[in-house]
Amino acid sequence: MDNNQAEGELGLQIQSFNTMLIQSQQTIMKIEQIFSEIAEGLLENGGGLTINLKTRNRANGQFYDPGSGTIMQNADTAKVSLCYPGKSSQESWRFTVVHRILELIHKALSDRETVTKRSRDLTSELFKRQSVVDKYIDDIACTFQSNRESLNVIATAKGLLAGPIKVIKEDGTVVEFAGSNQAKGYPDIVTRAFLHRLSKISTIPIYGLADFDPHGIGIISTYKHGSIAMAHQNETLAASETHWLGLHSADLAEPSLSRPVTMSLTAGDRTKALSLLSKEYMGEHGKEKGWRLEVQRMLMLNRKAEIQMMNESDSSIFCEWIESKMEIAQAQNST
Predict the structure, then answer these.
(1) Taking the model in full, what pTM does it have?
(2) Distance CA 49, CA 265 (A)
């Protein structure tokens, strides 16, 4: 690395650090504004206490941006009011939960410390379940038009990596990984963020290999286009250049592989398939016409297949098949 490159990278690191400081201060100010309004409510005779949060999963709360190929959050997403005392004990509990999470976020930002969602403070009996913490942290991030990381709250990583990987963090710290597994199933946020970042800083092609069923396509879609639940953060999570390598319907008859055992679609599979077909990018004139055709074939044949079935007889043949699929995909992408 020459001096110009080193200076350029240092400049980017300083710029990123300054941006993080500004975001932290903005978030602290927003939280303090909420606390100030609560204090005013306490001082008023008979005044109720209210916290307003944006809702992420309501109808029309998201839209598909064809330019970026990403599911995005509407800026005017409806808000829900949490009141204390509420109309029920459940509403009062929700208010208390959100207030406590805001306190912990404020402390983490003020102290410049990072906490995980499974830290002692976020796993107390008040919250009852981990899913409660997950929901309200994401709702708060959506309300602040931010993400979890800028709240100094991070998820415990569940994703898996394969091969030697070196990561240089924003503070210059080098972290090396030498995993022997791969990401699997619907991806967690850490895995998606890592892949998104990799897609932005390198020219390494990204391929997805999944089961020939609606949920397999759903997994690839989450990597490529993002998810509805995280629409407010998909810009930093989606890897829009992801390519679906297989399994495709034609692969089920591949002569070099052992013929997979196919199964009938379940009612849940068919519901998922219809949900996929309703998405804009899976429409008749959408970006993923090939995906649409594959889903239609699943429904017509009423069959699905697991990729594991194709790897059971001879893994070396299976690996050769994957390499040939990648070569074909690379040739198609270069034209």
Answers:
(1) 0.73
(2) 49
DSSP line for 54-78: E-SSSTTSEEEETTTTEEEE-TT--
Query: How large is the greatest C-alpha to C-alpha distance in the chain, in angstroms?
Result: 79
**At 157, is the secondary structure helix, strand, or coil?**
coil
Q: Tens place of pLDDT for every residue, the chain, 335 residues?
A: 455 555 555 555 555 555 667 778 888 889 999 888 888 877 775 667 888 888 776 655 777 888 888 888 777 776 788 888 878 888 889 899 999 999 999 998 888 888 877 777 777 788 888 888 888 888 888 888 887 778 888 766 666 666 665 655 555 555 554 444 454 678 888 888 888 888 888 888 888 888 899 999 999 999 999 888 888 888 888 998 899 988 888 887 766 665 666 889 999 999 999 999 999 899 888 889 999 999 999 999 998 888 776 666 566 777 777 888 888 887 777 66
Burial of 227 (0-12, 13-18, 19+ CB in 10 A): buried
DSSP 201-244: H-----EEE--BSHHHHHHHHHHHH--STTTTTGGGT--TT-EE
How far apart, in whole angstroms, are the C-alpha atoms of residue 169 and residue 163?
19
